[in-house]
Amino acid sequence: MYNIPIIYVNDNFKNWDLDFVELVEQCLRQEERDKPFVKLLKPNIGDYHILKPSYSGFYATPLQLLLDDLNIDTLIITGVAGDMCVQFTANDAFMRGFNLYVPKDCIASKTEAANDIALKQMKEILKADITVADQVVLHHYIQ
Length: 143
Fold this sequence. Notes:
Layout: E1 7-11, H1 20-28, H2 35-41, E2 48-52, H3 63-69, E3 74-76, E4 79-80, H4 82-95, E5 99-101, E6 107-108, H5 112-124, H6 133-141
Parallel strand pairs: 1-2, 3-5, 4-6
């Protein structure tokens, strides 16, 4: 439908001997209640993947190189730990000059209050568009 590169940027959970595919497989072997979530988000062939050692997707990773190679100037950032990993990645992306979308229905934090604060900061400080996901795609890609 849309030609949007998908890049998974995941914690390595301090497990330096796993690659991304092994990490996904390990997550699929976790408790039964987690499997539907992991299956839903499992990458497709052709998706990109980067493991990160800390909160930001840019810190000590090749993410900037990949984005440069793909000629990307706009990021749609989603994920868990909206008040940590998503926000740290968005901060670094903003400082690198990317246009930002952080759909408010595509991030989650430990509490709703923490999530709301993170979204407010990303909107006000980072100038991120926090429109819901289906509207982001419509107004950004349909001209």
